[in-house]
Amino acid sequence: MALGNDRVQKNPLESQYEVFNWLRFPLMVLVVFVHVNAPGIMSNSNLAGIGLYDMLRRAISLTLAQTAVPMFFFISGYLFFNRLHDWNWSVYLGKLRKRCKTLLVPFVLWNTIAIVALFLAFVRHAGFHEATGLIFNNDFWSLYWCSHKWPGPPSWFGVPSLMTGPCLQPLWFLRDLMVVMVLSPLLWCLFRYLRVWGLLILLFCYVSAVPIGSSLSTTSLFFFGAGAYMNMNQVNLPQLAWRYRYLVWTVAIVLWIVTVMAVGYDAYGNPKFSLISPFFVLAGIMAMMALAAVAVKKGHRIPALLSNSTFFIFVAHALLLEVSYNIFKSLLGNGSVLMLILRYFLAAILPVVICVLLYWLLRKFTPRLCGILTGQR
Questions:
Q1: In terms of DSSP bridges, do strands 162-165 and 148-151 run parallel, antiparallel, or are they unpaired?
Q2: Which of 79, 82, 234, 327 has its CA 20 to 30 A from that of 351?
Q3: What is the number of structural domains in the chain?
């Protein structure tokens, strides 16, 4: 399927991988916007001009940006199941060995960096002995797995859900990704014997927010599984999204508006999601794939430096966000709606710029260290 005025003609499989690659940097910027609103960094209480400002950050951070992590899970599932249409244990174990280098090593390394930073912060405020007691206690190893806890999305059945993350909170994505990769033989069996019904079971668990444990989210299980299912059945989702792009965009825009009106924050600044949110995420992913497919078909490119720096941005941005927010809070204050909006965008953009610059410097002058920090990417 091709547009009549395409500048570049590509085969469907090549275009699909280019769509995935094209999306990496924009999706990572959205991930940063999700974390700008983390509790303790930004609160919506007693701020001037809260109506317009809060509507804007709900539209971006609580709605549009919520599509980013699920799409990364989908892409990861699709790529992991290359050469696994028919199950092969040697291929599977080879993939796990490779992920030890690309996922496990950076996961441990960056969590260690975060733990050291946390320890130094405690030393500064409470003293060395108090900091040692707070950090190196019986729950020390939870810092690498589930030291952060926050409420998950609402369940259809009234069962509360709980999300957890390691010391460097955004790395819950890597933790869940490693878990579902280990469980991928079960996913293969699910799709091999139940076919589309297996995918629908996972879809129901996702949209209904059925709790399945504190170390594995329904988001990771469904979207990684959906990517695996598409690969096993040779479904080109970007091409499908492009084929029905006008319908997909219309549905996504309508659901975006409805979801923005339904989500919000509680009195403490914590996100409150709506039961409609998962449906927007599904439509939003399709809409962004369609947009990226159009860009690829027209020959547009994301600069290689930006695309290649996405993993470094992911693992490093959380260490910079609070500093960035405090800088712009001091410079811009809370005086007007314009200042609040500028602060919101600049607090997210500055860490991205710094991370891209650091990645460029590391790759240019210390490529070996850059490889270790980014899992040899």
A1: antiparallel
A2: 79
A3: 1
User: What span, in angstroms and rounded, lies between the C-alpha atoms of 313 and 363?
Assistant: 14
- Give the residue among 342, 306, 300 at the shortest CA–CA distance from 325: 342
E strands within 157-282?
Answer: 162-165, 264-265, 271-272
Q: Is residue 3 part of a domain?
A: no
Q: In 3D, which of 286, 280, 197, 275 has the Cα closest to residue 236?
A: 286
Q: Is the distance from CB of 204 to CB of 103 less than 8 angstroms?
A: no
Residue 150: which H helix or E strand, with range? strand 148-151
SS3 state of residue 340: helix
Q: Which two tokens stand for residue 234?
A: 């040779």
Contact 35, 324 (CB under 8 A): no
Residue 2 lies in a domain: no
**Can you tell me the distance from the alpha carbon of 81 to that of 8, in angstroms, rounded to the nearest whole number?**
28
Report the percentage of the chain scoring pLDDT > 90: 62
Give the orientation angle of helix 105-126 with respect to helix 128-135, to 10 degrees.
140
Structure tokens at 69: 């992590």
Structural domain contains residue 6? no
The tens digit of pLDDT for each residue in 31-42 reads 999 998 643 344
Q: Is residue 4 part of a domain?
A: no
